Sequence to fold (301 residues):
Amino acid sequence: MKSIEELKAIREKARGDLNLRQEDIGNNTRVVVGMATCGIAAGARPVLASCVEEVHRRGLTDVTVTQTGCIGVCRLEPIVEVFVPGEEKVTYVNMTPEKAAQVIAEHVVNHKVKTEYTIGANQ
Amino acid sequence: MKELSLHILDIAQNSLTAGASLVELSLTRRGGLLTAVIKDNGRGMTPDMAARVTDPFTTTRTTRRVGLGLPLWKLAAEQTGGSFALESAPGVGTTVTAAFVHGHIDTPPLGDIVGTVVTLIQGAPSVDFVYRQETEDGAFALDTRDLRRALEDVPLDSPDVLAWVGEYLQEQTALHPV
Fold:
């Protein structure tokens, strides 16, 4: 069984990661998931979890995953927006946990936009 | 919405939008009813707004004129023979209570309630959450204020902390399933 005591060990490790993370927070890539009623009903919760897990698994300390409300194109939810500093925002639509993990790997890590999942390819 | 836990995630997002610093979620199964309560200390609503808020054509969003979260939650509860209540006061907060008839064919499965709690903490790491579940067999509660005391300056949305919260909740919720 897990206990709250374990958090004290996690705390020490997390402090180390946090120092890495905070050095340059303004230059972080942001991955934003729409979490309004429309997004949640369409499956945004596992998409968000997949983004968080993939960023953690790859040890990407310069990427933040955040949530937002309704992006405005409810029929294309779940929607994930990727903001790379100095580049145009890219909007991905009809996302699944698998697609989200691919976007992290190919766009966020390798800087190759996953064109077939973008809003432009789905309109 | 196919799961009660997705509705709960959706309604709790309203609490965050209302500027709550504490959101308390509880699930109680007793006497054939499964009751979900979402209570916040956000800015609350005027009686006029509280009366209109389960109308789908009432919303605070600016992207379109319909808001379906509360109307869908109310309908989901009432169509099982259960009930819905909303109490709110400006400056005090809002409490939304939905009771479902347990085992009714229209009562959605609870679904991934752990995913809901982890998602809320990830999205609003400065807000405190309490998750409580209770059946005749026992009760369990997680309070992020307890976690904060153990974590000191480390935020709740640190990846290792979120992973721990998920595993901890999986274990605890499996002990006394609602």
User: Anything to note?
Assistant: The two ends of chain B are 19 Å apart (CA to CA). The mean pLDDT of chain B is 93. The interface with chain A takes residues 1, 6, 9-10, 13, 17, 61, 63-64, 67-69, 72, 112, 115-116, 118-119, 122-123, 146-147, 150-155, 158-164, 167-168, 171 of chain B (CB under 8 Å). The CA atoms of residues 35 and 171 of chain B lie 22 Å apart.
